[in-house]
Amino acid sequence: MPGRQRKVVDISTGKIGKNKRSARRQQERKIKLPRDALSPPEWLDEDAAAEFTRVAAEAGQIDLLDNLDLAILAVYANAWSRYMALVQHIQENGDTGIRENKWGEYEVMSPYLSAQERYVKQIMQCSTKLGLATTDRLKLIVPVKEDKAVNKFIKFLDA
After folding, report:
1. Structurally, how many domains does the chain consist of?
2. Domain that holds residue 113
3. CA dist., res. 8 & res. 25, Å (int)
4. Predicted confidence (pLDDT) per residue in 110-143, tens digit
5. pLDDT in tens, 24-51
């Protein structure tokens, strides 16, 4: 579908009529789902389950996630757990290694670094979809209109 992404009616800055605004609010209420089944799947390891629970609890404070986000959140938590395991391995063993061939020894980059990079990409993609970064959540914040203290045309009435 071409065009811009549709915004939530509360953050939309364009001109929307009252009838259209109330109709869009009703549509948004209809698509809001419960979050009662948002618990970590059994296949997650202990660290991933803890991250899943932490993110679900934090996101619950602002009603950010619902039951349909379960799969993306599980993938995020799994990637986070594996990323942290790779970080620990690299810290313990270093980010380079020595290889040997028939011409001698040479230093190579650890394959754990490229695996770590893949998990970083996966974490970033999932966190964007889930709105875990502040910049992603800024789309959800309702802009506050400032009240102007003085009418700019009042000066013409005093003349």
Report:
1. 2
2. 35-146
3. 8
4. 999 999 999 999 999 998 888 888 777 766 544 4
5. 777 767 666 777 778 899 999 999 999 9
